[in-house]
Every structure is written in C-alpha cells, then in structure tokens.
Known about the structure:
Elements: H1 7-11, H2 16-29, H3 59-67, E1 85-94, E2 97-106, E3 109-119, E4 122-129, E5 136-139, E6 145-149, E7 152-158, E8 162-171, H4 172-176, E9 181-189, E10 196-200, E11 221-223, E12 225-226
Antiparallel strand pairs: 1-2, 1-12, 2-3, 3-4, 5-6, 6-7, 7-8, 8-9, 9-10, 10-11
Amino acid sequence: MQSNIHPLRRVLKPGYLPALLALLLGACAVEKPLVKPPEPLVMRPPPPDLVIHVPVETPEEIQEAIDRMADVPGDRMLPALSGKIEQIDCRSGVEDLHARMALEAHGGQIASFAYYSKRRPRTCSMDMRRDDPAIKWRLTSEGATRVQTPQGLFLIRSSSDAYEFEFLEIERQKFCGMDGYINGKMTILRKASNPQCSVAGLLDRDGEEMADARDPAPELRVQGLRR
C-alpha cells in the first residue's frame, strides 16, 4: 500500500514544520531597501564676465519722468491763435557747428518751432507743434509759454523785438541719439531786416565750452532769413 505522507514529514520531527513555515514567511515580509532618489540638479551661476547688470531707476528718476508732464500751479490755457502770421528761419554758427530754428508765430504767439543743430559728426532734430496731443502748451503766470514734453521742457519768452527759447533738461537720446541733456538758450531777433539769432549753451558738450580756438565764428552769431 502506497503512503501519502510527504517526504519532508518523514525526516522532520513533530513541531519543526510550523517553525519552518514561520521562518519562510518572515523572510518574505522583510522590506526591500528603497532606492535612493537622484539629487536635484543645482544651477551654477554664470561667470562674472557674462552677467549683465541692469541699472534700477531710483525713485527720484521715476518721479522726474512723471513730473515732466504734470500741471504747474499758476499755469493757464493759452489763448486761441490770432493775429499776423510771422515765419522766421534763422541759423547761428558755421557749417560743422551750428544751430538752426524755424518758427511760426501768430500775433507774437508761437504756434510751432523746429530746431536742428550740428556739431560734427552729431546732429539733433526736433519739431514741436501746438496741436500735437502728446505735448502740453501752457501760459505761465509770468506770461511765458511753457512747452512740456516727456523728454524735457521749453520756456518761450516773447517780446516786441525777440523770441527767446530756453531748453531745460531735454534728453539728447530722443532727439540726438546720444546720452546727456540739452540746456541753454536760443534768441531770435524779430525787427532786424534779416533776423539774427544767437545761442548760449545749446552746442556745448558735457564738460566742454561751446567754441574753441579753431572755430571760425566763436561767438556763433550769423544772419538768418525772414519769410
């Protein structure tokens, strides 16, 4: 007669089988060690010679840009243009160093002006019109005309015999394509047979005088044209 007893039970003593099963089950229950995750990538800073530092505008610079178009206490709207039309085109200086102004006035009140200057090899060009919505024209309490632009302002003083244009902190970058500011005056005589004009400071470079010894016209005063 064939026996159905498992061969292991023939050799194992009673009580060994439960112990063996417990050992095998315990081995299966041991957790496998976790795989260590890769360390995150760390971006190294670029070399110092490749770093570009962008200057941050100071509060004063931001305020200055805002204030250029701000209303000035005491200023009033300009009266409507009326009166005799006057057109003057005047140049002051020599070929490689000069300033030129063309203007139109109605009854002594400036309606538009165009300024051009040359100091070889640099040139500046600007055109200001009273009907330009981006420009503010106002009458000051002293009777001058204040022309405000985002790039600076002009004061125009009119008299019976002259127009005086004062440039106040006009940004060169906008009109000349270079750094710095334009400050100075241009005066145009009205009653001369041929209008004369002169400039002060407008053609100066930063830290330099306007004219030097080799300028053939150091005073920069020449005849202009009246239309």
